Amino acid sequence: MTTAELLLHPVRLRIVQALLGDRTATPAQLKALLDDVSTATLYRQIAVLADAGILEVVAERRVRGTVERTYRLVVERAQVTGDDAVAMSNDEHRRAFLAFTAQLLADFDAYLDDPARRSLAEDVVGYRQVALDLTDEEALSMVSEIGGVLARFAELGPAPDRRRRLISRIIMPGRDVAD
Prior knowledge:
single chain; mainly alpha; three-stranded antiparallel sheet
């Protein structure tokens, strides 16, 4: 199974997203986050990700006669590489993009339905689209700079005064207006 196939399963994608940012979790903690997923399905998909090296066990402890494992995402394994993307068919890209955007919608729905949420402005929530006229070289430079900024802030890690924030990036050529 390719990395793309592993990551594009809806439950596996949600598990990976829950562990982004060097977070760790037990299956019970993941179950609390993915409460609409059956326990059997969750354990099965965790096992698939662990067997593929996308999740690693960082701790084990005995709980009532069983071993409870704590998992961490192996970030470098949890990415669709450029070579993977080139090998994907158009239909596979459509399914990947659909899974990605469906998860964005689910995350936004969960935010809107959260009784503890404040206003979008107070929570620093926004969505917008910007069109830029860039050469390929300028676009690559921009993506690299954005990646550097994201990496710098990702290094800050969790803290009591920090809230987890999801930042999603989609970059693609737009259609030009006919002259």
